[in-house]
Amino acid sequence: MHGARLPALLARIKQAGGAEAARATVAAGLTWQTCALLLHVGDPYAGAIAAVLIVETTVVATVSAATRYAAGCLLGVLVAIPGALFAEPGMVGLAVVVFAAVLLARHKFLGHYGLHVPTTALITFALVRGRHPDELATHLAEIVLGIAFGLACSMLLFPTVRVRSAERALEDLRLLIARHLDGLADAVLRHERPRKILGPAWEDDLGTALTRARTAMDEAHESMRWNLRPTARRRRSHLDHRVLRTLGDVAGQVSVTGRLLDSHPDAAETSRPGSVFTQPYARLLRTTALCAYSCRGGRPHPALPAARQALARLEAPGCTAPDKAAPDQRLLRPLESALTCLSAPVPTAPTRSHRLLDPLRTSPRR
To answer: Which of 184, 200, 212, 249 is the most exposed place for a label (fewest CB within 10 A)?
Structure first.
């Protein structure tokens, strides 16, 4: 009983950002102890705050946060020192420093880390004006150590690799595309509108799944950049952006086909039961669904050439009635585009080349 609760508790802590909180805690503790030992500071709060604030979920985000934090502190120091040394009276110098610091803090590069520009500027102004240069140097050294320990902990203490979430999002997208294509085939066979079978919000569901897959893919690639874990260094062909682009194009063609069947019900009703168009077109939709679900990188599905041949037979003249040829062609064009996208070359996993020994060359033996 307790053995089953422990993994569930760890999973909840992980979902709540437990790993990030642990890295921030370790970074703050190491910064505090190092500052106390090297700088002989009783309460090195500035370094601990810097370590906590820059630790993010991924290594790339942590490096970006550290850069912006350091830039904000540096700008604050550069603004405050001239105002504290040369501006008289002190209130005028303080007003000039605060005005310039707030203007610099609004730069879009700094983001919310721009808050540290006026904060550091005020601390620097007070210490320089009060003739405490040693305390200013100690304060800046604490910040440098905090940033260094934050970066080190983010890179070395099991940085996050968001691969499984991207794989789940892509799997959901593939499954939803296949289900929608299968539903369109049922709509063609039953001579009904797709929204009656797939639901009124089926296009919105497809767009939501595509947006979620793109977000998860971007997060996965960001988590693998500058990541030292061995799992992050493996090349995953199924998480390539070209695979997602192919699925996005196929999803767009599925939406076009569904809108055609919704807006032109006669396009699905051109054929009577047992005609030469309805049954092959439904089979073509299901085969396209199979090919779309198998789009994972590497070689396309073996049924793809047969699907293209079936499409060519449907496009051939004489397979439909002359007065009903135009709606049929409109239905075939999106499927042709989808099959073309699925036929495009996709990335494959790298294969390790093995050097073969020359069979005619004898190996030296003793």
So the answer is: 200
CA–CA separation, 100 and 80 (whole Å)? 9
The pLDDT value recorded for residue 172 is 93
Q: Tokens 């085939």 sit at which residue?
A: 185
The residue among 144 and 318 whose pLDDT is bigger is: 144
Which among 360, 361, 348, 359 has a CA at the least distance from the CA of 300? 348
What is the chain's mean pLDDT, rounded?
Answer: 82
Q: Which residue has the higher pLDDT, 27 or 268?
A: 27
HEC string of 217-251 equals HHHHHHHHCCCCCHHHHCCCHHHCHHHHHHHHHHH
Residue 307 and residue 296: Cα distance in Å, rounded?
Answer: 18
Neighbours of 273 (CB within 10 A): 8
Q: How far apart are CA 129 and CA 140, in angstroms?
A: 16
Q: Using H for helix, E for strand and C for coil, what is the string for 156-199?
A: HCCCCCCCHHHHHHHHHHHHHHHHHHHHHHHHHHHCCCHHHHHC
- Rounded CA-CA distance 314/331 in Å is 11
CA angle 208, 210, 213 (to 5 degrees): 110
User: Could you read off the pLDDT of 187-225 as tens digits, one per residue?
Assistant: 888 888 888 888 889 999 999 999 999 999 888 888 888
* Number of other residues whose CB lies within 10 A of the CB of residue 299: 11
Q: Give ∠ CA 36-42-45 in degrees, rounded to 5.
A: 85
CA dihedral 242, 247, 248, 249 (to 10 degrees): 90
CB distance 169 to 217 below 8 Å: yes
pLDDT more than 90, % of the chain: 40
Higher pLDDT, 344 or 336: 336
Q: How far is CA 363 from the centre of its chain?
A: 51
Phi-psi category of 260—alpha, beta or left, where left has phi over 0 and alpha has psi -120 to 50? alpha
The whole-model pTM stands at 0.73
- One-letter amino acid at 86 equals F
**Dist. CA 111–CA 105, nearest whole Å:** 8
- In degrees and rounded to multiples of 5, residue 87 shows phi and psi of -90, 130
Residue whose structure tokens are 């790993």? 19
